[in-house]
Specification:
binds pyridoxal-5'-phosphate, Aspartate Aminotransferase, domain 1, Aspartate Aminotransferase, domain 2, seven-stranded mixed sheet, alpha/beta, single chain
């Protein structure tokens, strides 16, 4: 009986709307790319996680298309019943090889990888020490384990030391430091070298979710551990195939052999959810080939991010400093949320697609437009984006 629930839900929806938090989905009428069609017309796209431009890359699309003929459309099974094809195992081996770990295990998504990993590895005797800005899926995954929880201020190693001390004083058996490699609202890096030093001092494990880095951060695209020179000191890596690595879907945990073996036995989102679709597996393998065989994409992405940051600085915009292709353009103060929204709306009207974020997604007074560069952008695309920012600022004031 739906009954009174209808009115209650409608009231909640109204509250969301009145708080200005209602999310409306803009429809794209083309493949995901640097230039997309939208129902509002053609648009330059600066808000996808398509960092290397592989979402519509011909090699990736061809591999996925061929896989439909070779491997079929779907698996209709979880992995351990009859959902493991040769190529699923091949992708796990390739990921482990690429990331320099002993083994890896695929999940339907990185959300599921994070949802499954903590409960398996950490019980009531253990402690998890987590960065306050970690992704929602890490927060949920930690909640699903019975471990004691400690939270440290974003990338603050002094506070991390305090929390590790507290965890050890409470007598925890296993202790694990958990962090995003890159924080998605700020485009900032976790200080993994210092985190690994502290973890050694406190005999703690380190888990890094490298979703916004794998494929393009670090000399070989192996992510933040490579960038910070600690690839052999991070114990557990989680990440997504849904961003730089082709952008379809799927996630993974890459780690020591025993960790992966135990996850295969016990991780609930792995055991009780369907196997990654054959076309997605084949496309992801092709994406990994591209990432491993050439640094062209990474270099183009780096050039675009540096060009955008430089031009925006020159134009007098307030950027969070850094080098990552996530570039937050800040609109501080009480009026910032409105300014950011008005500017993003004006830019969309000019055919440049960017998104404004304000409270509660980011702290009060720290509204921003988050720009995401891609290797698929041309220099002209980047310049058009900057010009659109300037024109919007002039128009909106
Ligand atoms: C995008 C993202 C995820 C979710 O990845 P999916 O594969 O889309 O579920 C998890 N963690 C972080 C840090 C992310 O940025």
């Amino acid at each position: 009986m739906y009954g009174a629930v209808k009115d209650q839900l409608a009231a909640t929806l109204r509250e969301i709307e009145e708080a200005g938090l209602y999310k409306r989905e803009r429809e794209i009428t083309t493949p995901q790319a640097a230039h997309v069609g939208t129902t509002a017309g053609e648009s330059l796209n600066f808000c996808a996680n398509n960092y290397l431009g592989l979402a519509d890359h011909p090699d990736v699309v061809a591999a996925s298309r061929d896989a439909l003929d070779t491997w079929g459309f779907g698996m209709a099974s979880v992995r351990f019943i009859c959902g493991t094809q040769t190529q699923h195992t091949a992708l796990e081996e390739r990921l482990a090889q690429f990331l320099g770990t002993e083994a890896s295990i695929l999940f339907p998504s990185c959300f599921d990888a994070n949802g499954g990993v903590f409960e398996v590895l950490f019980g009531a005797e253990d402690a998890i020490v987590s960065d306050e800005l970690n992704h929602a899926s890490i927060i949920d995954g930690i909640r699903l384990s019975k471990a004691a929880r400690y939270r440290y201020r974003n990338a603050d190693t002094a506070d991390l030391r305090t929390q590790l001390t507290a965890a050890r004083e409470a007598g925890a058996r296993r202790v694990c430091v958990v962090t995003d490699g890159v924080f998605s609202m700020d485009g900032s890096y976790a200080p993994l070298d210092e985190i690994c030093d502290l973890a050694d001092e406190f005999e703690a494990m380190v888990l890094v979710d490298d979703s916004h880095a794998v494929g393009f951060v670090g000399e070989g695209g192996r992510g933040t551990p490579e960038r910070f020179g600690v690839a052999d000191r991070v114990d557990v890596l989680t990440g997504t195939l849904g961003k730089a690595l082709g952008g379809a879907s799927g996630g993974y945990v890459a780690s020591h052999r025993e960790v992966v073996d135990l996850l295969r036995q016990r991780a609930r989102p792995y055991l009780f959810s369907n196997s990654v679709a054959p076309g997605t597996v084949a496309g992801s393998l092709a994406a990994l080939d591209l990432v491993a065989s050439s640094s062209d994409g990474r270099e183009a992405l780096e050039r675009n991010a540096a060009l955008f940051r430089g031009l925006m600085d020159d134009a007098g915009f307030d950027l969070l400093p850094g080098s990552h292709p996530i570039v937050p353009v800040m609109f501080p103060g009480d009026d910032g949320a409105r300014q950011a929204t008005d500017i993003a709306d004006h830019m969309l009207g000019q055919g440049v697609y960017v998104i404004a974020f304000s409270y509660p997604v980011v702290p009060k007074g720290k509204a921003r437009i988050r720009v995401q560069l891609s290797a698929a952008h041309t220099e002209d695309d980047v310049r058009r984006c900057v010009d659109a920012f300037v024109a919007a600022r002039d128009a909106v004031g």
